[in-house]
Amino acid sequence: MRDTPSGSGALSGTVDDIADAVIVTDADTGEVVAVNDAVERLFGHPPAAFRDLTLDAYATTPDAVRDARADARRAASETGSATFRWTARRRDGGTFRVESSVSVTTVEGRTCLVAVVRDVTDRAERERELERFAEVLTHDLRSPLNAAEAQVEILRSEATGGEEWLDRLEGVHDRMADIVDDVRTLVNGDRHVGDPERIDLNGAVEETWAAVAGDRDGTAGLVVSGDLGTVAADPKRLCRLLENLFENAVRHVGDGVTVTVSPLSGGDGIAVEDDGPGIPPDARERVFEYGYTTATAGTGFGLNIVAAAADAHGWDVRVTEGADGGARFELTGMERVERLPEE
């Protein structure tokens, strides 16, 4: 860490191991107090030069960044951290999108903002592509889906027999409609569960697994370990959450995957674990990002939908390593219920 002459030696060495650029500024004046060596890789300016730099030197819209930084300071003071995005300028004049993750700290009585700054140009472009894809999915597919649903109703009224197959076809249409709704939810930012229902998790897990793995060759396996309990949830969003976790396991491990769902020892959630190669530690935070995928056929929506559904219920989700080295997703904050308040 490089302190400026006006900075405090107490900051030295605290963030040197962070690969992303770190800029510490005085919360009141905006004066740069300290930076790490990564700022040179990101902005092109030597660390010592940041002492004399203002936002005008490395931000395309410095006034907007000052406002965003002030908002982030207020939010971070209340919640512990905040993020905002802005367009940065390198020393050579090139521009790129960055995300600042801000926290507030006090050093020798001086309130400072610690900003971890990351280049998110590629991620921002993926998000724009996914937003365009979402538009196609939510608009262009809705009309043919409605037409297909109407054809099923016509067949029910005019044909004799085949009700079982029509029921299955209707179920497929319902799942497609729910996926379209999920994408619309992500795009519109609607993350609130209005009227939860009392859901038996064992039943929900087994039903969702049957929908995901039912058409495969039977080699994929599900193990439900113990009583998962009953929670208050939106049944469709809970189904999408589980469905995306199961599909993620099948997509990355293959049809021979075994997925184990078990209650957490604290009694406030469940774990969904596969027996695949797992997720590297440095990718575990990114897997929930909008558009992030390592699969060649992936859209980048799946685990983001999981995170959005969990957040809508007030639950937390994290990924860690399973007992056999596979991916283990832990959902916490799932308070068990006997009955809903209105029952």
UniProtKB/TrEMBL annotation:
One GO biological process term: regulation of DNA-templated transcription
Protein keywords: Kinase, Phosphoprotein, Transferase, Two-component regulatory system
GO MF term list: phosphorelay sensor kinase activity
Domain Histidine kinase stretches: 136-332
Keyword Metal-binding: no
Substrates-to-products reaction catalysed: ATP + protein L-histidine = ADP + protein N-phospho-L-histidine
SUPFAM superfamilies on file: ATPase domain of HSP90 chaperone/DNA topoisomerase II/histidine kinase, Homodimeric domain of signal transducing histidine kinase, PYP-like sensor domain (PAS domain)
Top-level enzyme category: transferase
PROSITE patterns (UniProt xref): HIS_KIN
InterPro entries associated with the record: HATPase_C_sf (IPR036890), HATPase_dom (IPR003594), His_kinase_dom (IPR005467), HisK_dim/P_dom (IPR003661), HisK_dim/P_sf (IPR036097), PAC (IPR001610), PAS (IPR000014), PAS-like_dom_sf (IPR035965)
Protein origin, superkingdom: Archaea
EC number: 2.7.13.3
Protein name (record): histidine kinase
Lineage, uppermost ranks: Archaea, Methanobacteriati, Methanobacteriota, Stenosarchaea group, Halobacteria
